Amino acid sequence: MTIDTQFDANHLWHPYTSTINPLPCQGVKAAKGVRLTLDDDREVIDAMASWWSVVHGHNVPELNTALIDQAQTMAHVMFGGITHEPAVALGKQLVNMTPEPLQKVFLADSGSVSVEVALKMAIQYWAGKQQPQKTRMVTVNHGYHGDTFGAMSVCDPVNGMHSLFEQVLPKSLFLGALPTGYSTDIDETLAQQFEQQIADHQHELAAFIIEPVVQGAGGMRIYNPEWLKRIRQWCDRYNILLIFDEIATGFGRTGKLFALEHAEVVPDILCLGKALSGGYMTLAATLTSDAVATGVCESDAGVFMHGPTFMGNPLACAVASRSLALLVETHWSENVYRIERHLKTQLLPLIRHQAVKDVRVLGAIGVMEMQAPVDVATAQNFFIERGVWIRPFGKLIYIMPPFVTDNDDLTVITQAMRDFAEMKSA
C-alpha cells in the first residue's frame, strides 16, 4: 500500500516543522534490523536509532515476542491502586542497574514527562522540608530537557528551541556554558564563578539539573566528567538536590551503562527514557532516593502529586524489561566500544575539511559540526541517496546508530558523512 504523503503534508503536523512550508517527509513502510524501507522500496540505514531509542535495531524477535505475549494477557490497566508483574519486573531491573541510593521508581510516559516529574519532586521535597521558598532550578547553558513547560524552563534560553516562551516560563538560573572536550581541564576561574552564583541564590534553589557528560539536542556537546563532581559538591554544600537527565545518554550510549559512571557521581534524582523500551513503546522512568521520596511525602499533600493515565503500562513495561535483559545478552559494551573505535577512525580525520568546524566521538555517538548551518531538506536527500538516514539540526551532522550496526554499515554511514564534508568544502 502506498503511503498518502499528500494527506500527510496537508494534515499531519511533524516535529519542528512549519505547516506553511513543511520540510519534506519520507514515507517508511517497514523497518527491520538497522534498515528502514522507504515507500519507493529504497532502503536506508537508520543512523539515528530513531531519535536514539532503537538500540537493538528494528523488528527485534525477542521484543516482538514480549509485546505479543503481554498483549494477549493484558494491554493496559490503571496504575492507581493496581500493580502487575511487568511493572514489578521492570522496577527490579532499574533498581538493580542504577546506583544503590536510587530506590524509588516512578514510571512515566515520555522523557519530557520524566523531567517534569523530577522537577516536581524537587519542589515538593523542599515543601516537605519546610523550605517552600526553594522552587527555582539551576543549570548550565546549552542543555535540552524536553518540550513540555517545566522541561522548557531548564533548556538553554538563548541557543535552545524555546526562546519564544521565555516570558511565560519559570525563571531558572543559568550559570553559563561548560567548556567542551572530554579531556579539557576544569577552568577554575569559571568554576568559582559558577559556585558564587549558586551561593548567592542557594536560599531559592531546589535542584540542579544537567545532562551528564553529553548535552544532546542543545548542541551535542561533550564535556569533562570532572564537572559533575564539582556540581555534586556544590549541591551538597548549598543544600540543593541534583537531577541527572540521562534520557539520551542512559543504557550504554556513551560507553558506560549510565553516563554518571564516567564521574562516579550519583544524583538525587535520575531521569531515564528513549532506549528504555528499545524504541518500541513510549516509556520513561524517574528514580530517586528513599530520602527524597520521604521528603516529598512529608509535604502538606502527603503524596506525590502526579499520576499519568498510562503510567506503568503493561505493554511498555514488558517490552522494556525484555529490552534491558537483551542489552546484557547482546554484550552492549563490546558493541559500543567497537562502534566508538570505528567512528574515531573514520570521522576524526574529517576535521581537515574546510567546511568542518569540529568532530567529536564518545561511545556510540558521532558528531560532525559544520562551519555553517545545514539545510535539513537538502542534507536529508543527500544522505538518502547514499543509503543512510540522518536528520541534521543546526550546524550538526550527528549519528547515534543502533548498537547492532555492523562495521560494514558503519562504513556506509561514515563514508556518507565524508562525502558531505567534501561536498561542502569543494
Topology summary:
Layout: H1 5-11, E1 28-32, E2 35-38, E3 43-46, H2 49-52, H3 61-73, H4 85-97, E4 102-108, H5 111-128, E5 136-139, H6 149-152, E6 173-174, H7 188-201, E7 205-210, E8 214-215, E9 221-222, H8 226-237, E10 241-245, E11 269-272, E12 284-289, H9 290-297, H10 314-329, H11 332-347, E13 356-362, E14 365-370, H12 376-385, E15 388-389, E16 396-399, H13 407-425
Parallel strand pairs: 3-15, 5-6, 5-7, 7-10, 10-11
Antiparallel strand pairs: 1-2, 2-3, 4-12, 8-9, 11-12, 13-14, 14-16
Query: Spatial order of the strands in the main sheet?
Result: 4-12-11-10-7-5-6
What's the CATH class label of the largest domain? Alpha Beta
Q: Average pLDDT across residues?
A: 96
Envelope shape: globular
Summing up helix and strand content along with how strands pair, one would put the structural category as alpha/beta
**Number of spatially distinct domains:** 2
- The helix count comes to 13
Largest sheet: 7 strands, mixed
Low-pLDDT stretches are: none
Q: How would you name the CATH homologous superfamily of the largest domain?
A: Type I PLP-dependent aspartate aminotransferase-like (Major domain)
Give the CATH architecture of the largest domain. Answer: 3-Layer(aba) Sandwich
The end-to-end span amounts to 41 Å
Named CATH topology of the largest domain: Aspartate Aminotransferase, domain 2
